[in-house]
Amino acid sequence: MAHILVAEDEQDIRELIKFTLGYAGHTVTAAANGAEAVDLVEEAMPDLIMMDVRMPKMTGYEACRQMKSMDSVKHIPVVFLSAKGQNEEVQTGIDAGAMAYILKPFAPSDLLRRVDEILTQIGVGEADD
Q: Against a cut of 0.70, is the pTM above it?
C-alpha cells in the first residue's frame, strides 16, 4: 500500500481521512496546515500528497508550489481536497502543480475509490507490496 501525506486544517476531516486511508492499509502522515506539510514532506517521502486548499499559515497552493520547487520531492504527486470546484479554482490547483482535485464533502468509499484510481495512475499500490 501507499504512504500518503495528508494536510488538512479541520481536525475532524483530517482524522476521518487518516482513519479511512489507514483502514484501507495505507500509511498516513498528517499535517495540520500547509507549512507543516512542507516541513514533513522530505522526512516522510510519501507516495502521494493530499492537501486542503484553504489552510492557515500556508495554503495548499503555496505548499504545493514550494514542494514542487524542492528537487527531492517535486516528483511526488499532489491532490487537492476542496469544497470549491469551480473551473478557475481547479485550474489554479493544476497550475500550482497538482495532478487531481477531490471535492469535499466526500463519502469515505468515494475517497478510497479516487485514491486507488490515482495510485494506479501513478503506478503505486498492490504491486509495490
A: yes
